[in-house]
Amino acid sequence: MDHLASMWRSLSSLYYEGVTFFLTTRDWLNEHPQQLFQLITAFILLLGFFLWWKKTHRFQLTANQRAEQLLKQSLTPLQYQQIQIQGFLELPSAITPSQFYRIPRYRGRVKVYENYNENGQTLCRLKAELCIIPREDVPDADLILAHKWMIEGDERSYTTIANWIIGQQSPGWPVYTPGRAIRTD
């Protein structure tokens, strides 16, 4: 019984506070009709912005998800693992056997490395960075596939279209990586 009485007091108090708030607000709005218009306008603008943001964000999220799914389907499991762990996809050059490309996981320049021998040890050094920027905003996963397919499909055109950043313009050039296992096929 005490529980019911306690609940009744809580409900009564809540009802009293709600009615008091409503009456106070109604009186204030009657005295300030211009503020009512401003409140309604602000509410409509905020609601419109929220709906626009939600629609845009949802589309972007699904585009990124679809791109990531396509990337995973288009790469071998070893390539996908390399991109997840090392942050780049490595592709050998079909034109120059001692050269390979590193396509970054996220936006950035494609790096061109070359293998060379020094004192009987196979090393690699950064030869250049290639800059190709899409005209429209695309998900990073789609950008990786675009680079991969252009290099594999028509490497000569790809390297002709790209802006080459060579030598001292490239930060940290040359980069030596001793002890790195290099493919020599």
What does this structure look like?
The chain contains five helices and five strands; from the N terminus they run αααββββααβ. The protein has two domains: 2-72, no CATH class; 76-169, no CATH class. The longest helix is centred in the first third of the chain and has 42 residues, at 33-74. Mean pLDDT is 81; it is low at 169-185. Helix 4 (140-153) packs across helix 5. It has a five-stranded antiparallel sheet. With 185 residues, the protein is of the alpha+beta class.
Please tally the β strands and state the result.
Answer: 5
C-alpha-based Rg, rounded: 31 Å
Main-sheet strand order equals: 1-2-3-4-5
Overall mean pLDDT score?
Answer: 81
Q: How large a portion of the residues is in β-strands, by DSSP E?
A: 15-25%
Order of helices and strands: HHHEEEEHHE
Continuous helix count: 5
What distance lies between the first and last C-alpha atoms, to the nearest angstrom?
86 Å
**How many domains comprise the coordinates?**
2
Task: Characterize the biggest β-sheet.
Answer: 5 strands, antiparallel
Query: Shape from CA axes?
Result: elongated
The helicity comes to: 55-70%
Secondary structure class reads: alpha+beta
| Uncertain segments | 169-185
Summarize the SSE layout with pairings.
Elements: H1 2-31, H2 33-74, H3 77-86, E1 88-92, E2 99-104, E3 110-118, E4 121-131, H4 140-153, H5 155-161, E5 163-166
Antiparallel strand pairs: 1-2, 2-3, 3-4, 4-5
Helix pairs in contact: 2-4, 4-5
Which descriptors would you attach to this protein?
185 residues; 5 strands; 5-stranded antiparallel sheet; 56% helix; alpha+beta; disordered C terminus; single chain; elongated
